[in-house]
Write a structure and sequence with these properties.
The protein has about 525 residues and is of the alpha/beta class. The chain contains 21 helices and nine strands. Helix 9 crosses helix 18 and helix 18 packs antiparallel against helix 19. The longest helix is centred in the first third of the chain and has 35 residues. About 5% of the residues have low confidence.
Length: about 525
């Protein structure tokens, strides 16, 4: 051990001593440089014998010394400025990245408009449009080669190394469906009513998740009415489990996207192109929608706790897209320009939202969340899950495969076989007039269209027309009462329940009346 300490002192110790001597020498330099009294004493000891020329040299030497001090100070200040200039907070860095991305998009659009104007000008002069550079032509040819033809599952273009593409995950999806994917054999022989019963039994027997049959019917009928479903209620009632169980039942697992409180724009869902890494930051949301274009199974995309941020901020564009009447118009704008090695199904920088995708948002109504705007509720079917169903015994039910086209056909058949009766339509018109007169509320064309779609689907699932009307009126119409000042309307609310009994029959509108009683109690 003594030998090691002697070695340490002779070798490592001297290295550290030399390192310390460097700093000691630097501080000694500063100490002598700035010790003006000592330096003045030295000048006085020699100044008595100085001549005119020596005084001039003394002045020049001190001026040079002052210049050296000033230069060192300036260099040190510049060094500090560069260090602090290079440091950018993470939040500001993200903002700058988004600004760069937006500026690049605007530049590309401006160049595109310039090219269009140039082409129009050349055409007016009777000339021809200049040919594109070879690189542009190759890009277009490569993009056209990636376009799927015929069946969506038949992609004949060669595989692309995901590492070479700016879309790593989407390119990996392409390669999987080109080389590995085998379409399932679909079981399309059952009715909507059978589908609901089998789904309920599967959830109970395989997942130990228990739901009332009416709740299953509310959920399945909603798929035939809207692309957005909102499941709301207290924690632990199965809001996320219900769409999860549906994905397991049809053998196509759901995609769960956990909404974050800081979400304020569409890039939180779609992702964004990173100008520094030249890669696209892909999200589970984008991957799920992109991949759904390859298969025919229904797919559910869950926005878990969707109102922990303001839904109308980050989901506003999607709300508008889903309102488009034609499938071709329902597309997500992802990038401004297409590269030659981009994923196969990105066309003109856009991704198609196929008809086999449904969005399910779960909502907790508490102090930690935001209120959901009417424009979100108007486009969705809200379902309340306020309690758990009692466990029950049933036979083991296996999972199945059903195509989204078959599910849509079942909904369309139900709308043809079980249209809402004229008697019910007349009662709804009378109810609408009463609400306008008493509460200054009206159905609106969208809600009326949803009622006419929802009621036949619910009847096709094994329910009754009266149950469907009771449910959809409570969730789509009476929910608007929350925007009124109900403190001064308790008498009108009490009269409204009597009016429901008179219009639809005694105790026929149980869900509506329970909801009205809850409003009276809370106000």
């Amino acid at each position: 051990m003594d030998n090691f300490f002697r070695y340490f002192y002779q070798d490592i110790g001297r290295v550290f001593q030399a390192f310390i001597d460097v700093f000691a020498a630097f501080f000694n330099f500063l100490n002598y440089l700035l010790n003006f009294p000592m330096r003045m004493d030295i000048i006085k000891s020699y100044s008595d014998d100085f001549g005119v020329g020596e005084w001039i040299l003394l002045l020049i030497a001190n001026l040079l010394l002052v210049a050296v001090i000033v230069i060192l100070g300036i260099l040190f200040a510049k060094l500090l400025r560069k260090i602090f200039r290079r440091y950018i907070p993470a939040k500001k860095f993200d903002e700058l990245s988004k600004q760069v991305k937006n500026l690049q998009r605007d530049l590309i659009r401006a160049n595109y408009e310039k090219d269009k104007l140039l082409a129009m000008r050349v055409a007016e002069l009777g000339g021809s449009i200049p040919e594109q550079p070879p690189e542009e032509e190759n890009t277009e040819e490569q993009t056209e080669e990636f376009v799927p033809t015929g069946d969506r599952n038949t992609i004949t273009s060669p595989c692309v190394d995901p590492q070479e593409s700016r879309f790593f995950r989407l390119t990996s999806v392409d390669n999987f469906y080109k080389t590995t994917y085998v379409p399932p054999v679909y079981d399309n022989a059952f009715t909507l009513e059978d589908f609901c019963v089998r789904f309920r039994n599967y959830s109970a027997s395989q997942l130990r998740l228990y739901y009332d049959l009416d709740m299953i019917r509310y959920f399945i009928a909603s798929l035939g009415t809207a692309r957005i479903i909102i499941l709301q209620g207290i924690s632990g009632t199965g809001k996320t489990s219900l769409p999860y169980a549906f994905g397991q039942f049809i053998s196509n697992p759901t995609t769960v996207v956990s909404v974050q409180p800081a979400w304020r724009e569409r890039t939180e869902l779609y992702g964004y192109f990173n100008e520094f890494s030249k890669k696209y930051t892909e999200t589970d949301f984008l991957r799920a929608i992109y991949e759904a274009n390859y298969y025919k199974d229904p797919h559910m995309l869950i926005l878990d706790e969707m109102n922990i941020a303001r839904v109308e901020y980050y989901f506003a564009e999607m709300l508008s897209i889903l309102e488009m009447p034609r499938r071709e118009e329902r597309v997500m704008d992802i990038v401004a320009a297409t590269w030659d090695n981009d994923p196969c199904l990105i066309q003109d920088g856009k991704v198609q939202i196929d008809d086999n995708v449904w969005f399910v948002g779960t909502i907790n109504n508490d102090d930690s969340t935001f209120a959901v705007a009417d424009k979100v509720y108007d486009r969705a079917i809200p379902i309340d899950l306020d309690s758990r169903a009692d466990p029950f015994e049933c036979e083991m039910e296996p999972s199945t495969h059903i195509s989204a086209d078959r599910l849509t056909d079942l909904f369309n058949e139900a709308k043809m076989l079980y249209p809402i009766t004229q008697e019910s339509l007349d009662k709804l018109e009378e109810l609408n007039a009463y609400l306008i007169k008493t509460f200054r509320l009206a159905f609106g064309n969208r809600i009326m269209r949803q009622i006419q779609d929802y009621v036949p689907c619910f009847v096709g699932c094994g329910g009754t027309e009266q149950q469907a009307i009771d449910f959809i009126i409570a969730k789509k119409v009476l929910r608007k009462f929350e925007s009124l000042n109900l403190v001064f309307m308790k008498d009108e609310l009490a009269k409204f329940n009597h009016y429901l009994d008179k219009l639809f029959g005694k105790d026929k509108m149980k869900i509506c009346k329970e909801y009205v009683e809850l409003l009276k109690k809370n106000n």
